[in-house]
Amino acid sequence: MEATITITVDGEKRTATVDTRVTLLDLLREHVRVAAPKKGCDHGQCGSCTVLLDGRRVTTCLAFAVQHDGAEIVTAAGLGTQDTPHPMQRAFLDRDGFQCGYCTPGQVCSAVGMLAELEAGWPSHVTPDVGSAPERTPAEIRERMSGNLCRCGAYVNIVAAIEQGAAR
Q1: Taken in order 11, 13, 18, 21, is the CA torsion positive or negative?
Q2: Are 53 and 68 within 8 A, CB to CB?
C-alpha cells in the first residue's frame, strides 16, 4: 500500500509517494534526497538520524513517514547557513565536537532539541529536584545526550560544544 506524503524539510516543501512501511529516515534520504540525517544503526540506538520534527528531536529511523504527513522537519543542514551557522553548529566547530563527522548532524539536532527540553523545565533521570527547573550542568547534558553515540569518542568536546552553544 502506498501513500503520498508532503513534508517541509529545512523550509522547502517536499512530496513523495512511498510504501506505508517506509521510515521517515528512508523518506528523507532515499525519496527526497536529504543527506543530513545519517543511517547509523536503523534501530533507534545511535541517534545519527536525529532531526527536529515539529520542534522536537526525533530519531527518524523509528518513525513511519505516513505518521508525519504535513510535518515540519529541520535537519542540521537547515539550522544555519555556511555564512551564518547556527550557534550550536559554530560551537561544534569551535570546540572540535566531532572527529569523523558521521554522527555530527544528529548530535547537533539533538543538542538543540535537548536545550529546548531543558528550557521547558523537563526533568531527566539525573535532575536532583524534579519539582524545580533543571539546571544545565555537564551531568544533565551527558544524560540527555546519552542516546547519541559517537563511535570516535569525542564526548568531552561534544559536551563543551553544547555548553558553548547554549551560552550564545
Answers
A1: positive
A2: yes
